[in-house]
Amino acid sequence: MSDRVWEVTIVKYGTRSTRRAEVFLNYHAYHQEDGPIDMDYFFWVLRSEEETILVDTGFSRIGGDRRRRTMLTEPADAFRLAGIEPGSAPRIIVTHGHFDHIGNLSVFPDADLTMSRKEYDFWNGPHADKALFAHSVEADELAHLRDAVERGRVTFIEGEAHIAPGIRLLEIGGHTPGQCIIFVETSEGTVLLASDAVHYYEEYETDKIFTSVADLVEMYDSFALIRELVASGEVDHVVSGHDPSTLGRFTPATGALEGIAATIGAAHPPASGAHSDAQKESAR
Hints:
Elements: E1 7-19, H1 20-23, E2 36-47, E3 52-55, H2 61-66, E4 70-71, H3 75-81, E5 91-93, H4 99-102, E6 113-116, H5 117-123, H6 131-134, H7 139-150, E7 154-157, E8 160-164, E9 167-171, E10 180-186, E11 189-195, H8 201-206, H9 216-232, E12 237-240, E13 251-252, E14 261-264, H10 277-280
Parallel strand pairs: 3-5, 5-6, 6-7, 11-12
Antiparallel strand pairs: 1-2, 1-4, 1-14, 2-3, 8-9, 9-10, 10-11, 13-14
Keywords: Hydrolase, Metal-binding, Zinc
GO molecular function: hydrolase activity; metal ion binding
Protein name: N-acyl homoserine lactonase family protein
């Protein structure tokens, strides 16, 4: 384990109410009744004594409105509540290029970004404008990403990279060609920020595929890998990208983020270092 200890904060800023058949690919194949399902939208903050890193930036007002998503808190306001001032230059990890993950990069015009080269190349390649891919992105947001590259603000990873002591990125694919997951060392064990490699916990638990997928085989393989990481004890907590149960699996945030966030670990670990029973169950 790294000697740098991180705190993970999960911040909810948006939501959506829909049907199961709308979020799981070919839902009829599971021979299950359709029914209502919600989808929550998050960004994540990683904080240590040395630095603060923002993971993804949520959807913009325009991007959300076009898709009839409900914005509960303006992301710029939520960033501020999480201790990240709009206009500042935190380090930002981009897990993938969809509208609800890069929608507010413009709030941080001078920030340095880290992302998968495969992901960036895909959204600037010949398939990005195909309807089944293009509906998940915003052209002006991709243009902002290109501008950041041209200004030398983007660091690309390929495959796997340790980007700070206690933080490792792994390119896992499936949902998008360069979808990344993030391993974070905390005082409560290793946290896997799955982003959209796991929209809902039942995806990796029961091999259900989300409706938006770039490579079906890679998606199944990513589920198998995450199950293996949990079973082996290499990962203690899995944090989904959109599951409404996510906040309830972890310690509720207090102060300015009360009611819209949860935390795992602490930048200053407790003396006991003990896990609560609820937190031990969070990866299962």
